[in-house]
């Protein structure tokens, strides 16, 4: 890594890298409210859509800062989750919540009328209530230590298919976005690959002024640090030039039209310069049983995804795997983030962003201070509505090209976890291959045949459909089930090598620095012995999930040697 997790890059570098992480997450952040817009009866109200975009920016910034300082403490960005979209759309497709016919006709919609405002607000209030209740379940699962308990049964053969299936099922949507104009998408891919792989070791001389040397030049690895940002900006500029010169078609139905930079101009022109989102801005939330059960199913998928993200991020930034207390705290804070998202009314929850984990592998910058800067950028984008709307005008094929690169990195990171297992074992090859294939085949069939899943109970049908259409849940669950039931030795399953990495003595101090609470909490403050029994509280000497302290005696005797403190 050019910058490790505990390193603090210069402030200007943190700002630029934070903007790069924001741009990496931009596609997912903007896509969530735009996907919900039609079922919220907002397809002809771009101004309200921009309000939802600003709100999700603002809440994502708050949740990112909470996660970095009090949660898992890894450099992971938080944002809207696609795991909640399935149950949300299923709930809004019920006869009670289907949009009236007049809201589908742009000529009959008066966006300022109280009648229209009530139509979309009562739907988003229903989503708010479901997210609020489901988030309490996620907080309970995290802070109670249930996830940490399950982690003793989760090994490489569970993590590998889960991480891989985060990206593999997205090839269709990424390909569709890139297919808007393959020339622009290919240019974006070429630039990112060129900067991150071929030019990464080329230093660019930059002028520097210092007190000792005064004016001089210094080497700066520009292409290694900013490959995504450079690729996006150059491709965006290319699209702008092609738009101004009318090289791109102006007919909405023509191929390549969405590569123009003026297709989303309505959002930019109607959004206000300043708007401060606040809790309850759409009214008091309402709750229904169908919505709650559906969102809880989405929470399960989100938790599985986040655990995979934690391990992928730790591996990419070169730190020990997260211990139990850190995972408990991370999931609990994500539940708190969903609670805030429900209170503010994003129409969605929050989760760890896989594409930003992929960006860590490309930029080789794993400093958590960069993610703090990204969280602050998200807060500013949520408040300055006009600036946030401007970023939403990035052409679709540019975002599609970027996703193709990112998803490839995430898939490779997931497969790399297999290095701990015996790949000559037919058992392991079967478990991984079967989990991956079912994680792709089952969701594909359920999406094409949703009417076959009929139990007579609507809520149960929604829960089953959401779970079976989430590839990473299907693959991760099968990997978990088979790895813990099919006979195999600890060495064959990779758990022996997994434990050995977590128990290395030189990692002990680093693990405490990475996953411990900030500002001396637990070491100088709040050092009560009762706190040590909390499942989310860091324990001195705890490094990995399976490490046990066998050191007897009082803590006043001083720190133990590596031989005394590890099993």
What is the straight-line distance between the termini?
30 Å
Largest sheet: 2 strands, antiparallel
Q: How many alpha or pi helices? A: 24
Helix content: 55-70%
Poorly predicted runs: 541-567
Instruction: Name the helix and strand elements from N-terminus to C-terminus, one letter apiece.
Output: HHEHHHHHHEEHHHHHEHHHHHHHHHHH
Structural class: mainly alpha
Spatial shape:
globular
- Beta-strand portion reads under 5%
Mean pLDDT across all amino acids: 80
How large, in whole angstroms, is the Cα Rg? 24 Å
Number of strands: 4
Biggest sheet: strands side by side, in what order? 1-4
Topology:
Blueprint: H1 11-39, H2 46-70, E1 78-79, H3 85-92, H4 114-143, H5 146-150, H6 156-167, H7 171-178, H8 182-198, E2 204-210, E3 214-220, H9 222-225, H10 227-244, H11 265-270, H12 289-317, H13 324-344, E4 351-352, H14 354-363, H15 368-383, H16 385-391, H17 396-416, H18 426-448, H19 458-468, H20 471-485, H21 490-493, H22 495-502, H23 508-515, H24 562-565
Antiparallel strand pairs: 1-4, 2-3
Helix pairs in contact: 1-2, 1-3, 1-15, 2-13, 2-15, 3-12, 4-12, 4-13, 6-12, 6-17, 6-18, 6-20, 7-17, 8-10, 8-17, 12-14, 12-19, 14-17, 15-16, 18-20
Provide the descriptors you would attach to this structure in a database record:
mainly alpha, two-stranded antiparallel sheet, 60% helix, globular
């Amino acid at each position: 890594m050019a910058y490790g997790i505990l390193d603090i890059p210069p402030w200007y570098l943190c700002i630029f890298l934070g903007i790069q992480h924001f741009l990496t997450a931009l596609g997912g952040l903007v896509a969530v409210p735009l996907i919900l817009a039609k079922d919220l009866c907002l397809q002809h109200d771009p101004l309200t859509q921009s309000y939802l975009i600003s709100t999700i920016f603002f809440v994502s910034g708050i949740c990112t800062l909470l996660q970095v300082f009090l949660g898992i403490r890894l450099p992971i960005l938080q944002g809207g989750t696609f795991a909640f979209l399935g149950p949300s759309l299923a709930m809004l497709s019920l006869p009670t919540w289907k949009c009236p016919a007049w809201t589908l006709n742009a000529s009959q919609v008066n966006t300022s009328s109280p009648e229209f405002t009530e139509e979309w607000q009562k739907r988003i209030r229903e989503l708010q209530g479901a997210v609020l209740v489901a988030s309490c379940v996620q907080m309970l699962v995290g802070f109670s230590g249930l996830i940490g308990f399950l982690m003793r049964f989760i090994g490489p053969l569970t993590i590998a298919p889960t991480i891989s299936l985060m990206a593999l099922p997205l090839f269709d949507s990424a390909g569709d976005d890139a297919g808007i104009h393959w020339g622009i998408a290919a240019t974006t891919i070429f630039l990112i690959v060129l900067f991150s792989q071929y030019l990464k070791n080329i230093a660019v001389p930059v002028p520097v002024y210092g007190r000792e040397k005064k004016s001089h030049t210094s080497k700066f690895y520009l292409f290694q640090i900013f490959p995504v940002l450079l690729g996006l900006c150059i491709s965006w500029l290319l699209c702008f030039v092609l738009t101004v010169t009318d090289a791109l078609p102006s007919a909405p139905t023509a191929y390549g039209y969405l590569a123009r930079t003026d297709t989303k101009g309505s959002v930019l022109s109607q959004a206000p310069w300043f708007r401060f989102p606040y809790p309850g801005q759409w009214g008091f939330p309402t709750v229904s049983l169908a919505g709650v059960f559906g969102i809880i199913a989405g929470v399960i998928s989100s938790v599985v995804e986040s655990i995979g993200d934690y391990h992928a991020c730790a591996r990419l930034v070169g730190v020990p795997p997260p211990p139990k207390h850190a995972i408990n705290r991370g999931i609990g804070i994500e539940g708190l983030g969903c609670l805030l998202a429900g209170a503010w009314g994003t129409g969605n929850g929050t989760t760890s962003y896989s594409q930003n984990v992929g960006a860590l592998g490309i930029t080789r910058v794993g400093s958590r201070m960069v993610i703090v800067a990204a969280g602050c950028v998200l807060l500013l984008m949520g408040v300055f509505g006009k600036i946030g709307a401007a970023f939403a005008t990035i052409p679709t094929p540019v975002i599609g090209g970027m996703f193709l690169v990112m998803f490839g990195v995430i898939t490779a990171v997931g497969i790399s976890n297999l290095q701990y297992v015996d790949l000559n074992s037919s058992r392991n090859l079967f478990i991984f291959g079967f989990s991956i294939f079912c994680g792709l085949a089952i969701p594909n069939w359920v999406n094409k045949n949703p009417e076959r899943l009929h139990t007579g109970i609507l809520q149960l049908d929604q829960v089953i459909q959401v779970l079976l259409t989430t590839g990473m849940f299907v693959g991760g669950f099968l990997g978990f089930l088979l790895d813990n039931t099919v006979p195999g030795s600890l060495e064959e399953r990779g758990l022996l090598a997994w434990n050995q990495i977590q128990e290395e003595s030189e990692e002990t101090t680093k693990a405490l620095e990475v996953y411990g609470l900030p500002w001396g909490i637990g070491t100088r403050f709040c050092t009560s012995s009762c706190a040590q029994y909390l499942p989310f509280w860091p324990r001195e000497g705890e490094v990995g999930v399976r490490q046990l302290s066998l050191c007897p005696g009082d803590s006043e005797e001083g720190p133990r040697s590596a031989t005394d403190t590890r099993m």
